[in-house]
Amino acid sequence: MGFVSNSSSSSFCIFGIRFDGTENEAYEFVKDTELVAETTISGYDEVYIGLYPESMKDEETLLNFKERIIRQLAVKDAQYKDVTLSWITDGGYNG
Length: 95
Known about the structure:
The protein has 95 residues and is α+β, with helices and mostly antiparallel strands.
């Protein structure tokens, strides 16, 4: 099953970090990477960067997956080379 996304509802699940910047800065940050930027729909202006679980390659372990995300984050900004990743989910009705 996939997630529903339309004008009144949205859901996501990523493995990543909370980004301390604006939504536009997050989209610029992930440009030219596999990383994705997601924002919460609860109105708190929280922005997250990471990868969807579906991005995990068949031959990857969870540790390999985490390392790949951290490598991509660190290439964009060295402050992320020792970051702790989390499963981040959000969803609900906004209307």
